[in-house]
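Sanity check. The docking grid for NAP depends on where the pocket ends up, so I'm generating a full predicted complex first rather than guessing from homology. Inputs follow.
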Amino acid sequence: MKKIRWGILGCGGIANKFAEALQINEDAVLQAAAARDKARAAEFANKWNFKSSYGSYKELVSDPDVDIIYVATPHSYHFAHTKLCLEAGKHVLCEKPFTINAKQLKILIDIASNRNLFLMEALWTRFMPGIIKTKKLIDEGIIGKVITAEADFGMNFPFDPEHRVYNPFLAGGALLDIGIYPLFLSLYLFGKPKKLKAHSILDDNKIDLTTSIITESNSGTVSHLNSTTQANTHVKARIFGTNGNIEFDKWWFTPVNITLRTGDKEEVMEFSPIVNGYEYEAMESVKCLQENKNESDIMPLYFSMMLMEQMDEIRKITGITYPEEIESTAKPYGWNEL
Ligand SMILES: NC(=O)c1ccc[n+]([C@@H]2O[C@H](COP(=O)([O-])OP(=O)(O)OC[C@H]3O[C@@H](n4cnc5c(N)ncnc54)[C@H](OP(=O)(O)O)[C@@H]3O)[C@@H](O)[C@H]2O)c1
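Predicted complex below; grid placement will be based on this.
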């Protein structure tokens, strides 16, 4: 099988997790890492055994030995950085949320399509075996007709105006950072809702501290989806049907134990990750490139677009507002710093 040569763009927290996950992929070559600072990139490359390192993202995208780039920068830079990679002819796996709005995503999808390049959102939860199993159980009707579901993700982030969840120029807030996970779950399990209501508590910058969403699917399932950056919540998900229920343990978005209850029976299913959970999205990217596919069947672009459109709609309803600079499609935010 063809080996796939990886580049990493941005050497922060999540890039370290992803690089760790790449270590077990026998078809992945750890080719190059780039940070805005050369020494930082070299340190990262040395830690994870990448062959080369660069002190700018432009140098990374010019490396002819890199096939695919993992974009691991803050939300507001995804549009510029993914565009940079695609225009240099590189395949891209981009961290969530894909962009700030659906208009930006549409542009990226068009560039990838015109240039025949692979593009995928690194929404790691979609690739988790436990999540895939849950969808199968629901579709097979094991818990009957699904009446209601709940998913939440809340973490208490100490206030720091520069932190990504509070800084408007980094597209701070609960929805785009962590609320995307409960929203994803209901979209994946029950499809695009026919009705959606949402409410956010905003700070002085019009960034959401808390966002609650209620959806009704076409088949009548009501989902309660909560996210907050102000409290540590139980971070659980539960799905209730007419014949039973499915309950995820804490940190449901990277599930290890899932309990299935039907009648008097209770079964605990275990899904321990091979490394840290990021290996599955890496495996899917490698497989797609080996099969010359520009899009994943697991996480197709239409699904990312639907997710992005739903977040646009929720922001409109609740008043979450970002600076025009990061919403722009004409001037990608961060382009001038490259
Ligand atoms: N899938 C998940 O489980 C998961 C978990 C956490 C985060 N994420 C996503 O991953 C992305 C990055 O999050 P992170 O936690 O890794 O953030 P982080 O630790 O702050 O790292 C972000 C990196 O982006 C680069 N960068 C470029 N321009 C920047 C700027 N103006 N300000 C700050 N950083 C800048 C920096 O790279 P260099 O200085 O090295 O160039 C920095 O190391 C976010 O979009 C987030 O949603 C996903």
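Relevant for the grid: The domain at 129-270 is CATH 3.30.360.10 (Dihydrodipicolinate Reductase; domain 2).
Also worth noting: The chain has two domains: 4-124+278-298+332-337, 129-270.
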